[in-house]
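User: Teach me something about this protein's shape.
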Amino acid sequence: MIGLILPTAGRAVWVSEACREGIEAALALAREDGDRWADRVRLVPAAATDPDAARAEARRLIASEGARVLIGSALSEYCLAASEAAEALGALYWEVASVADEVTERGFRTMFRLNANARSFAAASVALVVDVLPAIVGSVERLAVAYERTALGTTVGRAVAAIAKARGLAVVAEEPFRTTGSDPSDLPALVARIGAAGPQALLATAVGTDAATIVREVARQRIPLKALVGAAGGWGGLPLRRELGALLDGVFSVNNARAWRLAPDGLTPAARVELERYRASCAARRLIEPLADRDLAFVGMRLLVGSVAPAAGSLALDDLRRAALALDVPDGGTVIGMGVRFDASGHNTRGRPVAMQWQAGTLVTVDPVELATHPIMEPSRTPADRAT
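Assistant: First, the predicted structure itself:
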C-alpha cells in the first residue's frame, strides 16, 4: 500500500490535484503494460491540511494503514514534516515535487527526491542571467533577489544571492518577505525598494498571488528591468496566467520542464515513445494543460512501480533503497528530459530545471538548447515596457 501525502488546503491545492492526476496516469499506463506492481498498488490519501497534519497523517498511514511507501508532497514544508515520520517508522518516502535542500540533507535512509534541489534551481536561474541573456539583452551586472519566507523561498533565494555573488554579479537588493496570500499589502513597498536599488534583473521566488503582485508592481512602478526571472515557485502555473494575462509575457520561469513544452528531439527514443503515450493518456482524461507537478508525479510513479519495486522484489525498506540507488536513467530518459541517478542522501544528481518564458500567453522552453522549442522573446516585451 502507498500513502499519498499532498496538501488538502491552502495555496497549493491545485498542485495536489495535478500530482494526483500524474500518479493516476502513470498507474494506468503501467496496467496497460501488464505491470503486476501497478495492480498491487492501493493509494490511500491523507488529509494533510498543514505540515503538522502531514506528519500526523504520515504516522497514521504507516502505523495504522500499513503503508510501506509514502509519495508526495508538493510543498517542502509538508515533505520535511511527513518524511520525519517515515524515517522514524522505516517507510520509504518518494518525493516528486518539493525543492528545499534540507529534504535530502538530514541523513535519512528513507528519503528519495526526484526533482532538482534549491541550489540547482538557483544555479540555473543565475546561469540564465549570466550565460544566456547577455546575447539578447546585453550584460547584466546588477541583480535583485526577492523570496518568500518559506522552506522553498528561503533556500532558493539565499542560494541565488550566494551564487550570483560568486559569479561576479552585484546583488544590490535581497528582500525576503512573508507569504501574503490574499493580502499582498507589503509587496508594493518591497518592489519600490528593489526599484530604488537600480537592478538590471530581478530573480524572485514566489507562489500565486505574491508572484502576480510582483509582476504587477514592476509594471506599475515602471522598473526598467532587462529580465524578470521566477526562480522556482509558481511562475509557470496556470493560475498566474489567468490572473495576469498578457502582462506575464516576457517573464521567465526557471522550473521543472513541462512534457508538453519541450523539444522531443532532446529525449531518448524510449522517452519519446513514453511521451506520446503519456500525452494520449492525458488527452483521454481531458488534461490538456501542461503542469510540471503532474509530469513529475507521473515520472515518479512510473519509476516506482515500473523500475524500483520490480528490482526490489518487495516493499521492504532495504530492498527498495537498494533498487532506488541502482536506478540509472540517462539525461533525456524521462518525458521531462531529466535523468535519474540518486546519491546516498536520496538526491537526484541528474535532476535539472529548464528555463522557460511566457510568450503570447504560452509558457515555452528556451534553454537548454536541446530541449528548447522557442528563442527568447525580445527584451522590449517586459512588464514595465507593456505598462507604458
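Now, about its shape. The first strand starts at residue 2 and ends at 5. The longest helix spans residues 292-312. If you'd like, I can walk through any region in more detail.
User: That's plenty for now, thanks!
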